[in-house]
Amino acid sequence: MPGLLRQALRFRFGSLGGTGLVTLGPVVTRGKVVELRPPEGADAAEWSRLARPEGDRLEPRWAESDLDWVTRTSEAAWRERCAELRRLARDDKALPFLITVDGGIAGELLLDRVDRGRGSAELDVWISQAREGASITASALRLLLHHAFGEYELRRLTAAIPVGDHGAATLFSRAGFRREGLLRGYRRSLDYELWSLLATDRPEESISDLPIVSAVDVPGGGRGFERSSALQRRLHELVPGGAHTYARGSDQYPEDMAPVLVRGDGCRVWDADGNCFIEYGMGLRSVTLGHGYRPVLDAVHRALADGVNFSRPTRLEVAAAEDFLSLVPGADMVKFAKNGSDATSAAIRLARAATGRDMVAVCDQPFFSADDWFIGAVEMNAGVPENTRNQTVRFQFNDLESLRQRFAENGGQIACVVMEAATALAEPEPGFLEGVRALCDAHGALLVFDEMITGFRWSASGAQTVYGVRPDLSCWGKAMGNGFPISALAGRRDLMELGGLRTESPRVFLLSTTHGPETVSLAAFRAVVRAYADSDPIGVMERRGTQLAEGVNSAASELGVEHLVAAIGRPSCMVFTTRDGEGRPSQPYRTLFLQELLRRGVLGQSFVISAAHTVADVEHTIRATREALVVYRQALEDGGVDRFLIGRPVAPALRSLARPRQL
């Protein structure tokens, strides 16, 4: 890396107003802790010792001065300069940093000449020769890009690089910059190249490719989980189950290691104790673009400014419906709601009205609705009348004969077949979905695809497009809004109109919700559609997931536990297996694996990835997994988890009794 790189940063300060003095990081780079912090007068001696020996390399690229190099790099000169920089920072005209490595100064980075009227600034950065080639400057640049693009809404970045400085050119090229032109005699008669980066052109690696420093340790060590545990206890006093979703419950995590989160950014989340994690699962699979994804937030902010909920439809409803129907070839009409259960239960009601039948055949897949028609068919079914339970029957995925048998046993009574066309663990066998379609047609039942997970994760157009089988109705949600609450029921016009005003049939109370058309989530959905059109989030998830699976499974093989622990499933939607020494699925060993991942800064009940996960995030996860598997193998050799596991094992979310994790 060169000593000095000059760049011009142009960005909007937005409502935050000004720069001030901030600390960025820390991040880990090849085992070194890198941080950007404000300069202090007390740094004078260390800074002078670092800069003075590098005069031949640095002075030609620094601003011209009548002072000799020794004077310019004296402690007195530093203290005077530091005071001036801090004054400029207080006046919102500069953002100065020292680059530190393991606590010691390694160089400088200065955002200077801030012009708020023009929204522009210049950046100087130099790194000591001893730190060149160790990725320190790359990490410092990424920290700044992450901060400026995220918090300060950076729109354009230009970099002036000395001609022939191939190291600098490589650095900026990898960060997404493109060469624009030549600046002849730019500084001291030296020619420079002008490179630029637009926010819309950034590769995903340049946005959040920052390995985390995890402060997670055993409870009571490191930062621990003291605050999270206190908040969780309070939640149990206020909210049944301690969470508003059973899958988010503390019983799904090791005891006293259930983080209560305070914020997220990209694929990272922070808990109440300050621990930082790489998150998998990403909002129960609802976030594919990353937490705080700027284009979605920008769209939401614009919608908020114009009002959220009205007594009549908005123009946004027209645009959102058009966007949705352009994605799904088999859908003629759509109705928006808030939760997946809203959509699937409306589909059941519509199918019953259209066919005059009551029964529903559901595939043996995990979850379709919080409403009685489905919950009556699971173990946690207290409060559901028996006659309601009896109206739902199950069949097996990839087993046409089981569905054929259900039709035979309940002749003329099944209104619809509800299923996911595929899951993380199971692809449809050749001819299976086509066979389901044919059986539904032969028996006069409707085919309903649940696209909650497959939509925007298999394809923006859903699994029905991937596998080429068209349902009568389809239900959508999860990633539609990148975490904002929105779901949809879509289908054939003749069916959907049964809930409209252009029908002679008795009207179906299809969906009529106060918050279904609120503008914020519709705006978020439209921004998601644009993101999928302008980039390739699914391709990123597939590549990162493949990298993760290969790394995790390689680590398991190296440790001889590949038959017990494995990353499996579609790369964009993976889970992990945890088996005991006999090869049986094991909740105690699952809990031990979760515990060891949490200690190493990885949070997730699965390996479901997002487009915000970077190569570095995946590499961190692979390292954490390898270390966790060392403990896992020790427990296997010990004959059980008792010496290693803190607290009781996790338990299935939809069990009939609170035991074995009863409070």
UniProtKB/TrEMBL annotation:
Obligatory cofactor(s): pyridoxal 5'-phosphate
Highest taxon, organism lineage: Bacteria
Pfam families named among the record's database cross-references: Acetyltransf_3 (PF13302), Aminotran_3 (PF00202)
Keywords: Pyridoxal phosphate
SUPFAM superfamilies linked: Acyl-CoA N-acyltransferases (Nat), PLP-dependent transferases
Domain N-acetyltransferase: 34-199
InterPro entries, A to Z: Acyl_CoA_acyltransferase, Aminotrans_3, GNAT_dom, PyrdxlP-dep_Trfase, PyrdxlP-dep_Trfase_major, PyrdxlP-dep_Trfase_small
Keyword Methyltransferase annotated: no
GO molecular function, one term: transaminase activity
Name used for this protein in its record: Glutamate-1-semialdehyde 2,1-aminomutase
Species annotation: Kutzneria buriramensis
